[in-house]
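Please check this.
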Amino acid sequence: MGSETDTAGGSRSRARADLMRIFAAAVAAVEPRRVVARALAGATPGSGAIAEAIAHAPAVRMLAAGKSAIGMAAAIAEELGPRLGSGLIIAPIGAASPTMPNDAANPAPVRTIHAAHPLPDASSAVAGRAALEFAASIRPDELFLLALSGGASALMAAPAADLTLADKIAVTAALMRVGATIRELNAVRKHLSAIKGGGLLRALPASARAATLVISDVPGNDFATIGSGPTAADPTTYADAIGVLKRRKLWGRAPEPVRAYLERGAAGEIAETLKSGDPRCARALHFIAADNRTAVAGAAEAAAARGYRVEREGDLAGEADDLGRALARRVAAIETPRVCVVAGGEPVVTVRGAGRGGRAQQGALAMALELAAAAPGRALFAMFAGTDGIDGPTDAAGAIVAPTTVARAAEAHLDPAAALARNDAYTLFDALGDLVITGATGANVADIFVALVNY
């Protein structure tokens, strides 16, 4: 086995370059315009039903919402041409303006609203109202096409009656701080919303048909969870939402209007979210155009093309600290040459400090600490990064680590263990020059892990 200390600097540089190329391939595999065009053409396995519904609809009106909304909407407009009646795009603040077809064959007016993420604000409320109004304006003979991607939950905010946006923000922020899973988060916010939990489907005319085309950032591709399920039946209840807040020890700290609203719902005084027996569900199609597995497959293909033997790990899940340490032990045990380990998923972080970072950077720092003990001197580099290019509230997608990361930090008078404890991985990796900076990618299928071992 080679060692990082006795490998030439050029070899280390090539390994880091390979990591970036493999990550770029993962992102390219889920590029919104590409995967949507394939789905609309019926070229993606299983896409025939949704492609047929769109092809046979007299007219289609499109709502695209989420981090991938711009690319998804552009692909839909290109594929549908004059059959697209009109459109509404809801994208993150800072996202590039869409490049839409603008000729005689594509006369549809398409409006764009930029809104806040990961926490909603007044712009998200504007977007949520616009989405509900757009759905309500659909004619019975038109197909409502929702292009949905991760981030839509925050981008479209429509508080339920008797609640304010501030109420929803307080609860959402508290749940995120304690590391609530996406399913826990959605169980609560769907029951505080007029648009989530099937609320958008309810806003359509009773006889209207809907098709939801999804780029999924949710492990398992649960339609009720992606974007908080605006057109999907919701299996959770008001009682479940209360249970999440109590289990996470947030019930007593939730705003009084939220507690009162949820208690009224649990008592049957407020209608539940959309359930599977509702006849509207029979008129709604859903299809996954791409997900985290698509990105992992793209990464694996790129690694194999560069001469690595690829090993796939299970889904990235659980606390980022625990996951980082476990992956460090896993890759340290590999003895064969030129191995690339790839995995994808969505870990969580229980925030205990006031530092800067995200789940990918937190996992990377935990891995670096474990590698220092488990793989000293080994030729090994690893990357954790978010496919959207944005890890937590930072400008980084993630970070790259090696067995020497901790020693390099010590030389720079930095304390990795303390940084991990205060959730301040960004500051440490920034000082070391080990952040992965890509800018917003327009894709969003959770996170990717890549390790090059004995390169």
User: Anything to note?
Assistant: DSSP finds 17 helices and twelve strands in the chain. Residues 31-158+193-236+273-290 form a domain with the Rossmann fold fold (CATH 3.40.50.10180). The longest strand covers residues 84-92. The first helix runs from residue 9 to 29.
